[in-house]
Write a structure and sequence with these properties.
single chain; mainly alpha; Arc Repressor Mutant, subunit A; COP9_N; cytoplasm; CSN3; COP9 signalosome complex subunit 3 N-terminal helical repeats domain-containing protein
Length: 484
Amino acid sequence: MADALAAMLSFPPDNVDKLSPKDYDRAMHAHMKIMDKTTQWTKPVDKQNILDLLNPTLNSIPYLYALIEHIKAAGKDKTRLDALLDRALIFFALFDPVQVRYVGASWVMVLGWVMDRLRAPAIPNLTPISTAILRLDPTAGTFTTNHLYFLRACLSSAVPSQALPILDKNIYAFPTIPPKNVPEDLLSEEHELSNAFITTKNGFTDKVQPDLILEYYLLGAHVYIGQRNWTRARLFLESVILTPSQQHATSALQVEAYKKWVLVGLLAEGKSYPLPRTHDTVVMKSIRLVAKPYDVLAEAFEKREWRKYQAEMDVGAQVWHDDGNLRMVKEAGDALLKYRVIDLQKTFAALPVSRVASHMGFTADATLHMVTDMIRYGALNASITPGSTSGEAVLRFHSTDVGPSSTVAQEGELAAQTKRIEDLVTFVRDADRRLQLTKEYVEHLKRVKRQGTGPDGDLADQMDLTWDAPVPGQDDGDEDIMAA
């Protein structure tokens, strides 16, 4: 057993920092061959548990293997399983992410076991799962089924906010099959993007089907709706709606996403979002045909016809209930009243509450109470000058000019947007590189080469991409076109 322990501790070598990626990869494969032949994972060494003699950071692979064998040997012994859960949590906080790239299936096996164990308590804490996923891939940008399983676990355990560390990371790639006849990237290399080492063959994910992707974005939208993060909710819902399909097939998940997308627009902006420019017109027609009651609600909302909205809400109560959207529909009805008050700001600087009440169709007392709540909760930038009666009180709208604090917020948002654009450029560059390795792209280049650069060649190659700056003192051609 001592010899087996020595083999487990033999990697990494003392000069690991000086190894090239190629040498590291060769040494790792040699080490794994030895580990695959080892069978003495649960036997004590000098009366000590082998897990106590291994460092989860330095000896990540043997520690993981030993952990799996101890879990199998524990059977249904709750005491031993609880102790192993503690060790697994330590492992997920400390493992070497480069070493683990070589044992994806084993890593996922323990991840699933830990997830099941963490869901058992009355108040579950699933944060170690997101910690593990982000330690392996700090961007969490390559979609795996672990993303979805973790999100499902958070929702079923009634702790949706614990999914945010993963949901807040944008997905930029999906696991793919490495092209044939193209040398694969070494797992030990410093990869700019995680889809270089998270592929369909390395065990980090089950097969990714389109319906799993749709489910991930739809469930993620539910979390953001609960958080009142309308921007992310809209993004996730549109990711579902815009998912391409063969022969314009429409998914029930797309219909559900559209229904919530309509309601989110009413709550966030007081009107329906404009249809995404890249939508499939055939698919969208099918979606809207099924979701017509929601478009009718939106039409009444945008016209600020509160009583018509209430009537439609009552008539379709069973529809909203069956869709799981009854609460959002009622909330949108409350928001409609608020937007009717906010719309007055476009015309008036101040007006008596009695005038507001007349516009709303409510009593002055009810209107004063509603407007006071809107001001208190930040929904309306205004103040109320008291009067002898509720109707004589004056509602004064305040300027919406940008102040110092909002300027700082805008600068922060601009910096964040710049960072997102920089990341997107990196993702697109990587996607272009991988596209050029595909068989289809190589065949396309062969066709272009045969056809030449004439009229029958690739139109993109024939485009004039130069730009001549306008000569000072002369009219700009674009301005002439716009003037016409």
